[in-house]
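Reopening this ticket.

The earlier resolution said the output was attached, but the attachment link was broken on my side. Pasting everything inline this time so it's all in one place.
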Amino acid sequence: MHRPLTITEDPALLDDLVRIAAAAGSQLDVAHTPAHARPFWNLAPLIAVGADQADAMAATSPPTRDQVLLVTRDVEDPDTWRKCVAVGAQAVLTLPNDERHLVERFAEAMEPDPRSGSVICVIGGRGGAGASVLSACLALRASGDHLRTLLVDADPLGGGIDALLGQEEASGSRWGDLVAREGRINSSALQAALPSFGDLAVLSFHRGEVAAIPPQAMRSVLEAGQRGFDLIVVDLPRHFAPASIEALTRAKTTLVVATADVRSVLSTVQVLNEARKHTSDLRAILRPGVLGGESAAESLGIPSAGVFPDQPRLTATLNRGELPNLGPRTDLGALCATLLQDLLAP
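Inline output:
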């Protein structure tokens, strides 16, 4: 894939552009003169022309194209807009004021053909309902079906969904490496940074002390996920922190896992009261209990999306670091397959 091009002989401006591109997960092709730039002009996804080279570049009458920016460090230069028009740039960016915008433009330029991934949130109606297990199984089944899938652990106190998958020692970035990020994240860089297993990438927490996820970081991750993945599964905690609300507002569907017993139904109703403030499409996944499934679903007041079957050996399988059998002939595999078919339908 071709890289963005910068055209400048100003060493201070070049240093700024290289640093900004690195923040966007990109490298630059650098041309110090128009002659050096000519072979890259029609190939680069984005071109940043330094104000020092704008007139020289314009003198070569380069072909008209989009994604050309004029970049300057001189706020007071009265000739800036004339240079912008002369070189055929669509915008003028002034550093350092427009640095964040330029990071986003570099990141956008390096994106592959964008996908349009669906965000599915999963939340437990009460503790131990099995929301994390369903999140992991849903993501595993989707990636097994060759859907590019991102599994996001949004619960800092949940023990780590990577551990649930037996992959707590896998190398790659965790939330602690991303919480300071604001603005656009390159989806390819995100996928490359995270622990990945085939078509599944996992974003979890480091062991030890953890901090809450800033909503800006959750927003950046989910936006990158939607551009680079087919499906994003978010395992939510039961407390509605700002990052959880950020995920809920972006969810195509939120699955609420509840056991069919009185206490679980009462607890789930409380969770639903809060969730409805932030999202609209809520569906129940019921686990067998003392109540009938229809009675429990009616008490919750949301559609039932399926029954999460009891899996007597599932916990032992996961504790051994093994993955469950999600084949189409297993009850859990069939549930995940049906959910994916329904949730990802146009």
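Reporter confirms the inline version is readable. The chain is about 40% helix and 15% strand. The radius of gyration is 24 Å.
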